Amino acid sequence: MIQHNFNPFRKSNRQAYSLFDEKSSHEITVEDELAILKPIPKYVWEDDYYEQLKLELKYYKVDIQVLSHSEWQNLLTTGMYDSSKNLLLSIFTTRSLTVKQVFDFIMMQCQMTCQFEHLKKQLKEKSYECITKDVHRTFKSSDYFQKEEVLQRLQDILVAYSNLDSEVSYGQGMNFIVAGLMYLDFNNDEAIFEILRTIIMDKEWRQLYINGTPGLFLLMAKFNFKFKKRMPELYQHFLKLGIEDMSMCASAFYLTLCMQHSPIQFSLVLLAMFFIEGDDIITKMILSMIKYFENYLLKLNDFQLIIEFIKRGLINNFYREIQKCRKQQRLVQVLLDIGLIKRKDKQHKQKIKKGLMKQLVDRPLAFGNDVYSYFFR
Amino acid sequence: MSLGYYDWLVKVIVLGDSGVGKTNILTQFCDSKFSQNYTATIGVDFKIKILNIQDKKIKLQIWDTAGQERFRNITQTYYKGAFGIIFVYSLIDRNSFNNVEGWIKSILESTTDEVCSILVGNKLDSQDRRVQTAEGEKLAQKYNMPFLETSALENKNIQDIFDRLGQNLKIRLENEGQKVSNNTQRQSGQFKLNQEANQTEQPTSSCNSC
Q1: What mean pLDDT is predicted for residues A239-246?
Q2: Region Disordered: which residues (chain B) (predicted)?
């Protein structure tokens, strides 16, 4: 239900929405992986939000500037942009980029190594059993991934990486990253290979796939810690139901880089954000999404329903909700509430000059620089 | 008795190499279908099913794990509090049979509690058999667990896996229940297996009041 002429700046309207509210939100649905395999729209977001976003940011005193349409074009052609503007929020909210352009943007961040052609040949002495097995069970429900030539391409890319990096070789989850990018159908296997290579080698993602998966343990420890700190009530609720370790629902997000149970155009935006910011952004986004649905999750009292929702429904539903928020013109408010962006005045607070005592305490301790010698020198 | 009623809630883990059909066994058992559209399991998946063993209802919370060798460390963190283990290998994949002993050992190493296990050789429907029945039986005997050959595709012996496991679980739970019957009376509401570490050897039976 969209209210026409809804003005978010009117005082009476400001508190009209809480984060997730059954009356004003979509019905929650948990779909299977087919959600990713819908036809891909031209743009990630249907509506142009640029002017509205500027207004809202100003209203909420958020000191962030986003890239305009022409600046995006400039960035894509020259690779330059005004660094005082926030690339992260820009890519999350813009309509200026088509899905193809987001893909190109990611590609821009990768170094081309021109190794794909000779790496994709299978070596005789090596076994690719695991790859072959998984190629045939990646998005099996889609017609696209029934085609022999598509599966062959998928296999080629995974084999090429396996040949490049014998220590990692192939880890489950990589198949979904490659398949998701292939589904976009830009027919650029070499670029996909380079993106995979950059993710794993340059972005420290190797630690997730090498034997013993130490990186995954580290990320999950971080995730659990932040989850507990940010949503203590939900944490207690989960604990009561026997979900003591979030890794059972969140580890797949990292291994597949959110490419499995989410609309592919939105996964691509998340991937672009990952390229800008690094692994923290995935944790931040997942936590923000859980935060958005906190009220809903608190009402669920079933172990399986919660896990199913987080594993399969979280990103899908979040994407739909954000689309709806844009229509209701309350995007900035939501982003503030889930902690993706921060208010101006909060940043100001840190800049306030500290008192004398505080200055003293903060100064590094050195000979003649302790409290005692300050007063009694 | 309402539909949600059960006597015990039990955590069961399914282990075995990648591609042996763990997920298919579970979808066949829980949803009574064989899906050609299966996908590789990333991380861990769950199924819930209530099993009737004689007069008791056992609610199984089945954890379906990723099979690739390198994820074994993260899989091991899920062992805690498990009462039933299903080891799966594929009859047409010699390696998966050779590796199954490794899976058994990893359980023996990390849990001190006695668990009810069962060994399953899947893909009985295939003509291209690489592991003989006798070999499976021998391995099962060595570790003192029941053994079955199944086909998730043809739904052959799938129900039997869980009936056998359920029988053992029931005996086990009843024994435990007698030992700690004093404890159980103090416990109210549902019993959650993996709530606290020490709960695994504490009460193992309680009546769910719904």
Answers
A1: 89
A2: 176-210
